[in-house]
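Many groups now describe folds with learned vocabularies. In that spirit, our science desk offers one protein's residues alongside their backbone shape tokens.
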Amino acid sequence: MKYPVDLHTHTIVSGHAYTTLTENINFAIEKGLKVLGTSEHAPSMPGSPHIWYFENMLKVPRKIKDLIILRGCEANIKDYEGNVDIDSKGYANLDYMLASVHKEVLEGGTIEENTRAYVKALDNPMVFILGHIGNPIFPVDYETVVRAVKEKDKIIEINNASFGASRVGSKENCIEVAKLCKKYGAKIILSSDAHICYDIGNFSVSEEILNSIDFPEELIMNIDCRIIDYLKSKGRLEDL
């Protein structure tokens, strides 16, 4: 498959998803994925797991059959200074974090406040990916964010779940983000944001967006498992 990597997936541990980690792993193997990241919501999100869950993630096997499993977290940006709700102890055993804004944790501010929140979050050494930044209820200066992502060698997510019932109105914003990533050479990653195993690896609308603007494949981190090399370059995945 063209995009054998999905780093944004959830299980029943997040409180509003519907399958277990074992079910997600088995489906990913059946679908032919090479890398699956499990990324539960961090503790500030209602229904999410205790911080001990993330501290204990070394219990999750690194590999099952031919599937590499990455231990992640979807951290919540909790203020306009870009602070997240996982500290260094909490992420010590993680491979990566996505940083996202959710209205349950942070109300949308001004364009300047929201932009600062995303840009400052990139200063966290474990935040490698900005999650679903196209949500129209959190307006941002996309050019400023994309340029910061490029400068800090981080990644922007194109979230396929944003084109359904969640985050309605995101598509046009995501097209703008993708165009800016192409313009500035910023890395992106396609994510399913699956809350049930059957959505894992579903990037259908995201692919349509990339194809419509002739997005350069060298900037897509799902291809050829290049996310592994990227994370290794950041000092992670020493056991791979």
